[in-house]
Design goal:
oxidoreductase; Rieske Iron-sulfur Protein; single chain; alpha+beta; globular; seven-stranded antiparallel beta sheet; FAD/NAD(P)-binding domain; 40 strands; iron; 10 helices; metal ion binding
């Protein structure tokens, strides 16, 4: 045994400067209206705080104080999870100073103590979200909330923390937000900001505008029937219901006056008259526009493609239906894409059989290279997934209108009760063809580092754009990842408010299959060599993609 003397450290919740000034603004504790300029006109707005981020000092009974360590227990650059009795905090020492923040990443609850501390930021070990240790603010994505920040003080070489019990339990903080000042004054068919698309890019754009004090009308529209949800879970956790994967509850949108029009499709954009024309004929004028429509999955072009029980997974209903149909039945997945492979992994234990059809010789070859692709393929094969490589589907056969068999060009016939198609996607930008907005030959919207299109006041973000990637010498790239969509939305919002902010984020993606997680940072398109460190067979490795 190693004997360690008992020592004390305290952590205290600090109200961020912005919040403290809110308290001091008026004697009743309510913020007096501030003034924010939109389109050159002064407007009033009230800052509001989401309930989970309320001032911890309103209720003294909510405050806990604990001692956690001696000042010499932590070296510079070290982090430690400390228990305050009713919850934990992350204690950090950097450049001789102590900081304390929430210990769990608000995205999926990863322990941040296992993350990386560098230059005043802690990065989540699971999906790369990044938080400022001084403020707790989220600075890189995925996720929407920041960390609660607790105050640390040193007395007699002991470190003390004082914290709100509520903040210790929730482990998240929503930034302060403005509200719309007078929704009743607006014409239903006009808005200051119109956001087409309600994925991560659209939602982060709307939230960032409110966080920055924007108090005019914001309308989001989506073809989906649901409020924004965590789309990556559709293929990773297929039986999730819409309310389980909602990014924000209904009340959030009401509280901050972010209007969401569901099942509304934009058919055209008239840039001259700053108007979006909807499929049902409804028109909406805008001052600033964000196009964040994402992509549309490619369909099969073979004979019998219209038979029942063939799915592209686009909605929670699609995913739920596939799980129901696949349980103890035969599944064929077309395309060893991220979606196809994640669906195969999810259904492997539930279905009677899972067959995967792919044109390439190994999965992920273009993305991860042949060696990594083969190692992943081997893991799938050991989990009862059967591969049919270097072939494609020639026919879908039905019995009484429902799928019965999948016929391959190789002549092989596979029994199939359900088929999932994951053969790639195209940008959902067809409605912009005659708009004058610059679209490249593949259908992607071309934007600059500020997410601006060639049309003033029109921005685009997410899977449907190409943008200059700083780490590849500003090469125009398309990065259809969840993390990048968040950052695009944030950059677009800041530049709608004329902040002059350029994107410089490193792309990051993750996939999870059979309990193994593959994480990928950077943009390795065009690599000609892969350097492997570690053990590929055990799937404990790092791969470097070089050129």
């Amino acid at each position: 045994f190693l004997f360690v003397p008992a020592v004390e450290v305290k952590i205290e919740v600090v109200i961020p400067e912005k919040e403290r000034s809110k308290e001091e603004m008026s004697p009743n504790g309510k913020a007096s209206p501030l003034i924010y300029k939109v389109n050159g006109t002064a407007r009033h707005y009230h800052l509001e705080e989401h309930p989970i981020a309320s001032n911890p000092y309103h209720n003294p009974k909510d405050v806990v104080e604990a001692s956690v360590c001696h000042v010499k227990d932590l070296e510079n650059g070290q982090m430690r999870e400390v228990d305050l009795g009713c919850g934990k905090a992350l204690l950090i020492k950097e450049s001789g100073e102590f900081h304390a923040v929430g210990h769990k990443c608000p995205h999926y609850g990863a322990p941040l103590v296992k993350g990386v501390l560098s230059k005043g930021r802690v990065r989540c070990p699971w999906h790369g979200a990044c938080f400022n240790i001084g403020t707790g603010d989220i600075e890189d994505f995925p996720g929407l909330d920041s960390l609660p920040r607790f105050q640390v003080k040193i007395e007699k070489d002991k470190v003390y923390i004082r914290a709100s019990k509520q903040a210790l339990q929730t482990q998240r903080r929503t930034k302060m937000m403005a509200k719309c000042i007078s929704l009743s004054n607006y014409n239903l068919s006009s808005t200051n900001v119109l956001i087409i698309g309600a994925g991560a890019a659209g939602l982060v754009c709307a939230e960032t505008l409110r966080q920055e004090g924007f108090s005019d009308r914001i309308v989001m529209c989506t073809m989906d029937r649901h409020l924004p949800y965590d789309r990556p879970k559709l293929s990773k956790s297929m039986d999730s219901h819409p309310e389980q994967i909602a990014l924000r509850p209904k009340e959030f949108f009401r509280s901050y006056d972010i209007e969401v029009l569901t099942e509304m499709q934009v058919a055209a954009v008239d840039i001259k008259n700053k108007t979006a024309v909807f499929k049902d004929g409804f028109k909406m004028e805008y001052n600033k526009l964000l196009i964040a429509t994402g992509n549309t999955p490619k369909a099969l072009s073979c004979k019998g493609k219209e038979v029942e029980n063939v799915f592209n997974i686009r909605t929670p209903e699609d995913a739920n239906r596939v799980v129901k149909l696949a349980t103890s039945k035969n599944v064929v997945i077309v395309g060893a894409s991220f979606l196809g492979m994640e669906v195969a992994a999810y259904l492997a234990e539930r279905a009677h059989s899972v067959s995967l059809v792919e044109l390439e010789e190994v999965p992920f070859k273009k993305f991860f290279g042949e060696r990594v692709g083969r190692a992943v393929m081997k893991m799938f094969e050991s989990n009862r997934v059967k591969f049919y490589m270097q072939t494609e589907v020639s026919e879908l056969r039905e019995q009484e209108g429902k799928l019965k068999e999948v016929v391959l060009k190789s002549g092989k016939v596979l029994r199939a009760d359900v088929c999932v198609v994951g053969v790639g996607a195209v940008p959902a930008t067809g409605f912009l063809k005659q708009s004058g907005i610059n679209i490249d030959s593949k259908g992607f919207i071309v934007v600059n580092k500020m997410m601006q299109t060639n049309i003033p006041g029109v921005f685009a973000a997410g899977d449907a754009v190409t943008f200059p990637l700083a780490l590849r010498n500003n090469k125009k790239v398309n990065v259809p990842h969840w993390q990048m969509a968040h950052m695009h939305g944030r950059i677009a919002a800041l530049n709608m408010l004329a902040h002059g902010m350029e994107i410089s984020t490193v792309p990051y993606l993750w996939t999870a299959m059979f309990g193994k997680s593959i994480r990928y940072a950077g943009h390795g398109e065009g690599f000609d060599d892969v350097v492997i460190q570690g053990d590929l067979d055990e799937l404990k490795f790092v791969a470097f993609y070089t050129k």
